[in-house]
Amino acid sequence: xxxxxxxxxxxxxxxxxxxxxxxxxxxxxxxxxxxxxxxxxxxxxxxxxxxxxxxxxxxxxxxxxxxxxxxxxxxxxxxxxxxxxxxxxxxxxxxxxxxxxxxxxxxxxxxxxxxxxxxxxxxx
Length: 124
What we know:
The protein has one domain: Orthogonal Bundle (Multidrug-efflux Transporter Regulator, Chain: A, Domain 2). The chain has a two-stranded antiparallel ribbon. By secondary structure, it is mainly alpha-helical. Strand 1 and strand 2 form a beta hairpin.
């Protein structure tokens, strides 16, 4: 899994110790075995990390997703999990809009600098 995800074995063990992922089992030699579900879970962790999510918040998000996947989960728990995930989705949409605006400003400023530098180079 380390090679597939580009994540060190140490990081995977850290996320395991933090309770974010649990190996599906172990080989007779003691190596951890991970399912496709575990891989997807770690991909989610890898996406949340650069967004500044704490381990606690990552755990809550993954836990809420687990509740929604659990057909036997209590209705009230499912509704609370869905509400938290909906709030997170809205938060991520706002972050995307803000980043898009900042990216456009950076593009515009870069274009302006290009023009200024070209003009200054022509006058030298």
